[in-house]
Amino acid sequence: MGIVRTDDVLGGKPRLEGRRVSVLQVAELVLTHGQSPEYVADQLDLSLAEVHTALAYHYDNVEGMNELRERHVELEAELEDVSTPPPEPAER
Predict the structure, then answer these.
(1) What is the DSSP secondary-structure string of 50-85?
(2) What are the tens digits of pLDDT across the range 71-91?
(3) What are the structural domain ranges in the chain?
(4) What's the predicted TM-score (pTM) here?
(5) CA distance 61 to 40
(6) What is the spatial distance between Cα 77 and Cα 32, in angstroms, rounded to a whole number?
(7) Are 30 and 36 in contact (CB under 8 A)?
(8) Is the CATH code 3.10.310.10 the one for domain 3-81?
(9) Can you list the pairs that 27-30 forms with residues at least 24 positions away whose Cβ atoms lie under 8 Å?
C-alpha cells in the first residue's frame, strides 16, 4: 500500500495505490471537514491504515497539496463562469 501518481487516473493527482481515491480527497475530509479518520475509512471503503497513509503523504507534501487545492478552486471558478444557469421554472 502506498501513494502513486498515474497520468490517466485522477488526472495524475497523488492517490492511494489500487484506488481511485486521492490524497487530497482524504485530507479534505479529515482536515477541512473535521471527519474522523475512522469515519473517512468507512465512507470511502478504505482501511484506517490507508487513510493514515494518505494523511502522512499530505503532511510530507503540504506545498504540493496546497497547489493542487488552489488549482481545484481555480478550475471550479472557471467552470462556474462558463456554465449556463438553470432555466427559470415555467409559470403555471
Answers:
(1) HHHHHHHHHHHTHHHHHHHHHHHHHHHHHHHHHSPP
(2) 888 888 888 888 877 788 887
(3) 3-81
(4) 0.79
(5) 20
(6) 19
(7) yes
(8) no
(9) 27/54, 27/55, 27/58, 27/65, 28/69, 30/55
